[in-house]
From TrEMBL, chain A:
Pfam families, alphabetized: DNA_pol3_beta (PF00712), DNA_pol3_beta_2 (PF02767), DNA_pol3_beta_3 (PF02768)
Family: Belongs to the beta sliding clamp family.
Lineage of source species: Bacteria, Bacillati, Bacillota, Bacilli, Bacillales
UniProt KW Chaperone keyword: no
Domain DNA polymerase III beta sliding clamp N-terminal residues, every copy: 1-127
Source species of the chain: Texcoconibacillus texcoconensis
Location(s) in or outside the cell: Cytoplasm
Protein name: Beta sliding clamp
Keyword Cytoplasm: yes
Gene Ontology biological-process entries: DNA strand elongation involved in DNA replication
One annotated Gene Ontology cellular component of this protein: DNA polymerase III complex
Annotated DNA polymerase III beta sliding clamp central domain residues: 136-252
TrEMBL record, chain B:
Organism name: Texcoconibacillus texcoconensis
Cofactor binding note from Swiss-Prot or TrEMBL: Binds 2 magnesium ions per subunit.
PANTHER family in the record: DNA POLYMERASE KAPPA, DNA REPAIR POLYMERASE UMUC / TRANSFERASE FAMILY MEMBER
Protein name: DNA polymerase IV
Gene3D superfamilies recorded: 3.30.70.270, 3.40.1170.60, 5' to 3' exonuclease, C-terminal subdomain, DNA polymerase, Y-family, little finger domain
Function: Poorly processive, error-prone DNA polymerase involved in untargeted mutagenesis. Copies undamaged DNA at stalled replication forks, which arise in vivo from mismatched or misaligned primer ends. These misaligned primers can be extended by PolIV. Exhibits no 3'-5' exonuclease (proofreading) activity. May be involved in translesional synthesis, in conjunction with the beta clamp from PolIII.
Subunit structure: Monomer.
Gene: dinB
Length: 380, 429
């Protein structure tokens, strides 16, 4: 194998693929990155067996030639070293060639690295995904779906299924939900399935996979193909394929957890409410006591307090834009509200409470495609 | 501050052979006889918890196994412990102390500190001490020893010097004469492990401790090293705190099994009973634990403790049991078990415990809380055996944990004796 490639294109590809490579893997060859040169261009592959990324650098497009292939072939190189080397190469082009016994030379300008490669024949094949359930989604929308749900996934392994985001497609509507059993984030999006009547449910994508996917997506409205299979999901963009394993098991039913009536409703300015909660939690030790108390004090005012024993108490009054229903006194995890308020794309939010010991719902007022549900904190 | 420190007068009141004395106070026929209080008369776990001075004179040194005590003192009279009786006696005794000053700090069921710098009446300290000792003996028939000193440490050291019925004054200026010749192990707050470590560093007596380098002590013992060094000079700035007893850090119970066992059904039942008893004590004190610890001592005396941080503080027997059982299943290495213990740590008081309700089962949580309160209520009314889980039914010593009279309580840490409490596992008191 021997090829010459534009450094910038190559660095981008290598860095994307490196995100899927872990040094802590049980399959030694997966610590490496696979490079494959063909007549069409160069393909880079990485995998940690949960996610796999395949990145393609075409030989040329309308304007540029990126790759010059002298000899087709493939090699696997230790990602740890290779990634660092490629980032720091001095010249515009990189030449990579493989000699006997997988001995590989990486050259750029006068810098030369001789690396011991691994046998590409031993590199596992990427999952085969049947392409019968496919839809398209713009990259920027996909990024938003991820940003507005992944934070609510659980990171405890006690209920592994909750470490993922649940996707469900029905009547051209994609519903993404995530919960750690204390809060739930739900985001809906219209999907054009070209009236194929495509539908699925119980597709649970590991939160970590989605975070990594989000990092390799740029902010554009270009479409990504999404292919859903029995145990894998594949995202196909112009230059890369992103595979993720799906979580096994049944995602708990969440639709019926969302209260439909409210005993107390308030409309608040998102930013102002967010900073008030952030301020009230200044006294709480890291993650130890995130309890924030909220009560209505009349005239459309709310009082937010937080007490940390031995440290002190924070109190702040917040003016609502609108308030209706019964008086209320409730405690909740302030950190969870902050997480949600940070991703709400709306000037104002409406919160519907159904009592001090029942879950409450936060929704943007600008649109109805997202919803956050929170459980209260019981003090005893 | 300074003036107050200089002038402080602290008493340490220590009851002599408390359990034995209480028994003798209730049953005059026991007076003057060698008497021992033992955890259990028949079973292997029979350990002498307290012995009267008459028994001690014949070689009974608690804590020692009952069979050994009987060997050295054949006419030993043995009684089972009756904790409600002791608690009552303890309450009477502290009540009497409160008559002299509100600054009384109970340390355990049978000892406490008093700050008599400003006593209710203006008699000289020694006269007050004598008065207290005489009244304890006359009104309650309980002998005591009292240490009189400018701080808690010296008062405690002083009360130990003459037993029974001693009144000992220990001034700071007599520290070099009185304390320095003593072995470091005699120093209050120095346990076996610390003494050993000190000896390895060539420090055998309190005097040598006083003369050693505080910086070096700090590097090997931390703050405790600095404290030891101060104490060796008779310094102790701790106040007498009437509320100190409530600042416990953990609540625990343990039990030695009648026979070493590998039988999970037996273990399950013992852990259930221990959980029940820890739960009861927590509820009585209106506290919750944010961390549950399991202690396993194996046949070879190797002891392990494993704990788990909880996502919300608990106090119900069921919750505690579920945690220890999970710990047990995770950490038991299938060797024969001699002793099991359950301890709740990270104690928070009622009103300061928080639980973030689960979206999927918040209704269940509230329901279960109600049930647990009801069970507690029924047991309070009809006794501990009124409601039991199936697995808890059958005879063995862990049943005693449900028995008010025989169970160790908050203050009876000596009843639990044995090595694993030596390590200053702050067993609540």
């Amino acid at each position: 194998m021997k090829f010459k490639v534009h450094r910038d294109q190559f660095v981008q590809g290598v860095q994307h693929v490196a995100k899927s490579i872990s040094q802590r893997t049980t399959i030694p060859i997966l610590t490496g990155m696979k490079l494959e040169a063909s007549a069409e261009g160069v393909t880079l592959t990485g995998s940690d067996s949960d996610i796999s990324i395949e990145y393609f650098i075409p030989k040329e497009d309308e304007e540029h030639q990126y790759v010059e292939v002298f000899e087709e072939g493939s090699i696997v190189l230790q990602a740890k070293y290779f990634t660092e080397i490629v980032k720091k190469l001095p010249k515009e082009t990189v030449e990579i060639s493989v000699q006997d016994q997988f001995a590989t030379t990486v050259m750029s300008g006068s810098a030369v690295f001789n690396l011991n490669g691994l046998d590409p024949e031993e590199y596992p094949r990427l999952p085969q995904v049947e392409e019968d359930k496919t839809f398209q989604i713009p990259k920027d929308l996909l990024k938003n779906l991820i940003r507005q749900t992944v934070f609510a996934t659980s990171n405890a392994e006690t209920r592994p299924i909750l470490t993922g985001v649940h996707w469900q497609l029905n009547d051209e509507q994609l519903t993404c939900s995530a919960t750690d059993s204390h809060r739930l984030a739900m985001r809906k999006a219209k999907i054009n399935t070209n009236s194929s009547g495509l539908s699925f449910s119980n597709v649970v994508i590991p939160g970590k996979s989605l975070s990594e996917l989000s990092k390799v997506l740029n902010d554009s409205d270009e479409l990504v193909d999404v292919v859903v299979s029995e145990n894998q999901i594949l995202f196909k963009a112009d230059h890369f394929l992103f595979f993720s394993r799906l979580l096994e098991g049944n995602y708990p039913a969440t639709e019926n957890m969302i209260p439909t009536e409210a005993k107390t409703s308030v409309i608040l300015q998102s930013k102002r409410f967010l900073s008030a909660i952030e301020r009230s939690m200044l006294l709480s030790e890291d993650n130890k006591n995130n309890v924030v108390n909220l009560k209505t004090i009349g005239n459309g005012m709310l009082e937010i307090t937080s007490v940390t024993p031995e440290v002190g108490k924070a109190t702040e009054e917040v003016t609502s834009e609108e308030m209706s229903g019964e008086d209320l006194r409730i405690s909740f995890n302030g950190k969870n509200l902050i997480d949600a308020l940070k991703v709400v794309d709306s000037e104002e939010v409406k919160i519907d409470f159904t009592g001090a010991m029942s879950p409450f719902v936060l929704k943007p007022t600008d649109h109805d495609h997202s919803l956050h549900l929170f459980s209260p904190v019981r003090t005893y | 501050m300074d003036r107050q420190r200089k002038g402080r007068i602290i008493f340490h009141v220590d009851m002599n052979s408390f359990y034995a004395s209480v028994e003798a106070a209730h049953d005059p026929s026991l007076r003057g006889k060698p008497l021992a209080i033992a955890g259990s008369i028949e079973e292997r776990r029979g350990i002498v918890v307290t012995a009267s001075y008459e028994a001690r004179a014949q070689g009974v040194n608690p804590p020692m196994p009952l069979w050994e005590a009987k060997k050295s003192c054949p006419d030993l009279v043995v009684r089972k412990p009756d904790f409600p009786k002791y608690r009552q006696a303890s309450e009477n005794m502290f009540q009497l102390l409160y008559e002299y000053t509100p600054l009384v700090e109970p340390v355990s069921i049978d000892e406490g500190y008093m700050d008599v710098t400003h006593p209710v009446d203006d008699r000289p300290p020694l006269e007050i001490a004598k008065h207290i000792q005489d009244r304890l003996l006359k009104e309650l028939a309980l002998p005591s020893s009292i240490g009189v000193a400018p701080n808690k440490f010296l008062a405690k050291m002083a009360s130990d010097m003459k037993k029974p019925l001693g009144i000992t004054v220990l001034r700071k200026r007599s520290v070099p004469d009185v304390l320095w010749p003593l072995d470091v192990i005699e120093m209050h707050g120095v346990g076996e492990k610390t003494a050993e470590k000190l000896k390895r560093q060539g420090i055998t007596t309190i005097g040598e401790l006083a003369k050693s380098d505080p910086i070096q002590l700090k590097s090997s013992f931390g703050v405790a090293g600095v404290r030891m060094h101060e104490r060796a000079y008779g310094e102790d700035h701790r106040q007498v705190d009437p509320d100190a007893i409530s600042e416990f850090k953990s609540i625990g119970n343990s039990t030695t099994l009648p026979r070493d066992t590998k039988n999970e059904a037996v273990v399950r039942k013992v852990l259930m009973n221990l959980s029940d008893s820890v739960s009861r004590r927590m509820r009585r004190k209106e506290v919750y634990g944010g961390n549950i610890q399991l202690t396993i001592r194996y046949k070879d005396r190797k002891t392990i403790t494993r704990s788990r941080k909880l996502d919300h503080p608990i106090s119900s027997s069921q919750d505690i049991y579920e945690e220890v059982w999970a710990l047990f299943q995770q950490y038991w290495d299938e060797k024969p078990i001699r002793l099991l213990g359950v301890t709740a740590q990270d104690i928070v008081e009622k009103g300061h415990a928080h639980q973030q309700l689960d979206l999927f089962q918040y209704a269940d949580t509230l329901k279960r809380e109600k049930l647990s309160n009801t069970v507690d209520h029924i047991r309070n009314k009809f006794g501990e055996g009124a409601l039991l889980k199936g697995a808890q039914m059958s005879e063995d010593s862990s049943d005693l944990l449900r028995d008010e009279e025989k169970r160790g309580t908050s203050l009876e840490k000596d009843f639990l004796r044995e090595g694993f409490l030596n390590e200053k596992q702050d067993n609540e008191d």
